Amino acid sequence: MAKKLSPKGEIMFLLTMFLFAIPISDFLLGFFGVPGILAALISILLILILALVFYQKILMIDRVFIAILSMRCLKEFVMIVVLVYGLVIVAFATFYYCVDRFYYPTSSYFKWFYFSVITLTTVGYGDVTPINGLMQFLVSLEAFIGYILLPIIFTIGLRLILKDKNGY
């Protein structure tokens, strides 16, 4: 089984993952002049690589789910859920930010991070809106992912817990 991170390590990993997207995106957009969509894809890829290297449990997700979903490891399950949601939020926020920077160079990453959280949780306050057809498509995709992700994760978890308790 993969090496377990300490609670401080898990918190540091999550903060690093969430805050790493801003300098990567700005560096690609400003210094190299990479187009917005390409900068978003490169940023997301680098964040995912960082997640896989730093948090090795993701590489063995099937074995980890079985170990995590016993009642003894409930905290680990919560961290996996937070990690998955965090990666989805950061990926979409980075994409929105890079596309928006093309139209508005003074755009704020935190505005799009907030928008991504609100969209993924399907709350939708309406104070920030997508600016073009591509972003409208991505918002629809993110809302759908947010709608189905949590039930899927908990259904898998409940199935594994019941399988573990009942032996089948």
Automatic annotation (TrEMBL):
Signal peptide: none annotated. Gene3D superfamilies: 1.10.287.70. Keywords: Ion channel, Ion transport, Membrane, Transmembrane, Transmembrane helix, Transport. Coiled coil: none annotated. It comes from the Bacteria. The chain crosses the membrane at residues 12-31, 37-56, 77-97, 109-126, 138-162. This is Potassium channel family protein. It comes from Dehalobacterium formicoaceticum. The lineage of its organism: Bacteria, Bacillati, Bacillota, Clostridia, Eubacteriales.
